[in-house]
From TrEMBL:
Residues 2-231 form the ABC transporter domain. It holds the Pfam family ABC_tran. PANTHER family: CONSERVED COMPONENT OF ABC TRANSPORTER FOR NATURAL AMINO ACIDS-RELATED, LIPOPOLYSACCHARIDE EXPORT SYSTEM ATP-BINDING PROTEIN LPTB. Gene3D superfamilies: P-loop containing nucleotide triphosphate hydrolases. It comes from Desulfurella acetivorans. This is ABC transporter ATP-binding protein. It comes from the Bacteria.
C-alpha cells in the first residue's frame, strides 16, 4: 500500500497541492483524473520524490514505512517508478542495451516487452534511443523499460502523450498486463478511454481531491461538472 496523508506543496509562494490524502494498492489500477493545470503531474513528482517536489507538509508511506524524506533513488529501489510525459533521449545507446538494464534482462524478455508496446524487436533492438526515433517510438521504448523493471508501483503520467489515438488500446492492454503481474498502476490522465479501466479513481481540482470512488461515477461527474467549468482551478460548492 502506498499512502499520502495530508500532503501540501507550494512553489514560488503559490500553493499547488492543498491537503491531499490518497492511497494506492498493488495489483490495482488507480486513476487520477483532472483538467490541465490542477496539480496532477505535481502530485506524481511528489510521489516519485523529485528533489524540487518535497512536500511542505504531510507524510508518504509505503507498506507502513515513512518514505517522505527518501530520495528518488531510494524510492526506485523500493519499487516505485515513473513513466515521464516526455521520454528521454540517449545518443549512442541502442534500444537493446537500454532495455537490458546493464545485462540484467534476458533477451526473450526484451522481445516480449517490445511486442507488448507494438514495436517489432527485429527492427527496433538495433536502433538507438536518439532523435531518429519519433516521440511516440521513444515513449513506447520507455514503457517497455517500465514493464521490464516490474515495479511495485508505476506512475503513468499522461501515458498517451506522444502516442496516436489509435494506440490508446495498447496503453490499456499494458495497464492490465502490469496489474496482472502484481504492479499497482497509478495513471494520471484526462482521457475517459484510459480512466474507465481503473479499479478506483480520484478527481483532482485546484490541488485538492474533489471526488473519489468508482471510476464510472467519477467520469460522469467529471463530464457533467468539470468539462463545463469556466475555471478549472476554482472548485465550486460540490467540493468534498
Amino acid at each position: 500500500m502506498l499512502t499520502l496523508e495530508n500532503i501540501k506543496y507550494s512553489r514560488n509562494s503559490k500553493e499547488i497541492i492543498k491537503d491531499i490524502s490518497v492511497s494506492f494498492e498493488e495489483k490495482k489500477i488507480t486513476s487520477i483524473i483532472g483538467s490541465n493545470g490542477v496539480g496532477k503531474s505535481t502530485l506524481a513528482y511528489i510521489i516519485m520524490g523529485l528533489s524540487d517536489y518535497k512536500p511542505n507538509d504531510g507524510k508518504i508511506y509505503l507498506d507502513g514505512t515513512d518514505i517522505t524524506n527518501f530520495s528518488i533513488t531510494q524510492r526506485a529501489r523500493l519499487g516505485i517508478s515513473l513513466l515521464w510525459q516526455e521520454p528521454a533521449r540517449f545518443e549512442g545507446l541502442s534500444v537493446k542495451n537500454y532495455l537490458s538494464l546493464g545485462g540484467k534482462i534476458k533477451l526473450d524478455d526484451i522481445k516480449e516487452a517490445l511486442n507488448l508496446v507494438r514495436l517489432n524487436p527485429n527492427v527496433y533492438m538495433s536502433r538507438f534511443v536518439d532523435k531518429k526515433l519519433s516521440g511516440g517510438e521513444r515513449k513506447r521504448v520507455e514503457i517497455a523499460s517500465c514493464i521490464l523493471l516490474k515495479p511495485k508501483f508505476l506512475i503513468m503520467d499522461e501515458p498517451d502523450s506522444g502516442i496516436d489515438l489509435m494506440s490508446l488500446d495498447m496503453i490499456v492492454d499494458i495497464m492490465k498486463h502490469l496489474k496482472e503481474n502484481d504492479t499497482g498502476v497509478i495513471v494520471i490522465t484526462h482521457r475517459e478511454e484510459i480512466a474507465s479501466h481503473s479499479d478506483y479513481s480520484y478527481l483532482i481540482c485546484d490541488g485538492r481531491v474533489l471526488k473519489s470512488g468508482v471510476c464510472s461515477d467519477i467520469i460522469d461527474y467529471y463530464r457533467s461538472t468539470c468539462d463545463v467549468c469556466d475555471n478549472v482551478n476554482a472548485p465550486k460548492e460540490q467540493e468534498i
